[in-house]
């Protein structure tokens, strides 16, 4: 999943290229790939995760990988992946408009395949600071299902920038 063209927050320059490069590399190695670029809604992101889940269920001994490149944020210890049209005005909007990372973790756990890797190139500041001010930065640590590994762009609670080699921690 790569999200670049946000409607209400600044776009990200490298996310689509990163997601396309990962997909092309996996396809070249004969992996089946579910691709989603610039999803507008949480529902589109959920549909892609369901398609991924179905692939895993149809191939029970397979290794799986989820790659997300786009804005991500942590609020009250929960991590959210942000679709292009999201514009939460209050914290309660997050569950309606953004994909809670727990949804992805539950799908991976339910699929029950032996190995999953979840790469999050999304450790960034909360881009919607207007509705929620907090000292929370980056994404929070999450527990992963058995046989799963979660890879962050930087350590939990830190912020990675888009477009250059600069990393802030």
Q: What can you tell me about this protein's structure?
A:
This protein is α/β, with parallel strands linked by helices. The chain is about 30% helix and about 20% strand. It is built from 4 helices and 8 strands, in the order ααβββαβαββββ. A 3-stranded parallel beta sheet has the order 1-5-6. A 3-stranded antiparallel beta sheet has the order 2-3-4. A two-stranded antiparallel ribbon has the order 7-8. The longest helix is centred in the N-terminal third of the chain and has 17 residues, at about 40-60.
Tags for this model:
169 residues, alpha/beta, 3-stranded parallel beta sheet, 3-stranded antiparallel beta sheet, 4 helices, 8 strands, disordered C terminus
Secondary structure topology:
Layout: H1 15-28, H2 42-58, E1 63-69, E2 72-75, E3 78-81, H3 93-97, E4 99-100, H4 101-111, E5 115-121, E6 148-152, E7 159-160, E8 167-168
Parallel strand pairs: 1-5, 5-6
Antiparallel strand pairs: 2-3, 3-4, 7-8
Task: Report Rg.
Answer: 15 Å
What string gives the helices and strands in order?
HHEEEHEHEEEE
Q: Decide which structural class fits the backbone.
A: alpha/beta
Strand order of the largest sheet: 1-5-6
Any idea what the shape is?
globular
Number of strands: 8
Oligomer: single chain
Number of helical runs?
4
Strand content: 15-25%
Mean pLDDT: 83
Largest sheet geometry: 3 strands, parallel
Cα separation of the termini: 25 Å
Which stretches are poorly predicted, pLDDT < 50 over at least 5 residues? Answer: 165-169
Please give the share of residues in helix.
25-40%
